């Protein structure tokens, strides 16, 4: 990308100078995107904050308004918004190649880290020290999910209407077993109609992670045009190319092994998930956890928590936990393949069908994104979906709490109401104590995510060494 804009830099107190930034080539951008990927811990909010600091404040590649507008667009899409934001900005600066580099590098560290940890888990997961480590991770993950409920709730629930949508979403998914896509679609329709009617209750709020607005001139300012513009031919080519990249492997798997094989189930399930995963990673994980554990039986509730602990402690999108799910699913139903080979292929297949659609959404939709500016109906839909997501994440927190603190649960059903209740005699006092300590550290002592995860993991190992847990 060539740069003709100028930025203001202070050379001393009360003094400012103007200079033109150097053009940024794709080769020069690669190490910057690699650095962002390497430090993309902390979930979507933390990852967006890292990108904002590097791209807006430090490098001044993109203006504050363009960054936030891109974020709003990515929030409207299914899939991990932080990875899509990286893809969008990369596309904005260097076209399709830039989007591939930025979005691909953003997930690469997580792919490698989760795959390595999945191998360790499959081979040594029942070894005492490893089991103790993951015992501690579960307690920390529970506290982090509870923190996500509070953080997103403060941003999204700006009145009784939004609180009501969140409550209805929680009741629907926890007590009535309403599918997550139905909740998202219903909330979106309500918000769309409310926003179109101009009701103030459905006015969209801002996003976290950006911090204080950064003023000045940038390499890519508010009026700079992207390298690739909207064109019908280009849109159709992107649809065909990225649709094939995504769906041809799925079709090949279905033809090769049949619809009942675990590889086909993984390919189809996570392809469907890629189309309905609105609302961020925690909301998606509620849906994935229930389907993977209760419907398909690919893994146990505690193992889902272990996978989320891996994703929390490694760089990359939290949704990378799906690779762990696909890994275990294929590991336990390998067919004629060696279990670890099947597991590796299952994990990579899951990652492929999870992230290939993200590039499709950006490369097809980004050229038209300016048409979304100031659209009240879409802003209302976004607000309502975000409110409903709070209820979905609360469901995830309750679900995790039940399966962290209690070793057993049993189903309860009365008419349309059905949910799991804990077996009191299966209460694990050490899990309860460690979870309470993690909650205290996160909410009262304001300890960060990584120190909390590290401390809880160490505590789990010490409890194992002391013989307190098996």
Descriptive notes:
- Helix 1 crosses helix 4.
- This protein has a two-stranded antiparallel sheet with strand order 1-2. Strands 3-4 form a two-stranded antiparallel sheet.
- 47% of the residues are buried.
- It starts with 6 loop residues before the first strand and ends in a 5-residue tail after the last helix.
- The chain is mainly α.
- Strand 3 and strand 4 form a beta hairpin.
- It is built from 16 helices and four strands.
- The protein is globular.
Give the biggest beta sheet: 2 strands, antiparallel
Please report the total strand number as a whole number: 4
Which strand order does the major sheet show?
1-2
How much beta, percentage-wise?
Answer: under 5%
Structural class: mainly alpha
Q: How many whole angstroms does the radius of gyration measure?
A: 23 Å
Runs in which pLDDT lies below 50 for 5 or more consecutive residues are: 2-17, 205-214
pLDDT averaged over residues: 82
Helix percentage: 55-70%
Number of helices: 16
* Mass-distribution shape: globular
N/C terminus separation:
57 Å
Order of SSEs: EEHHHHHHHHHHHHHHEEHH
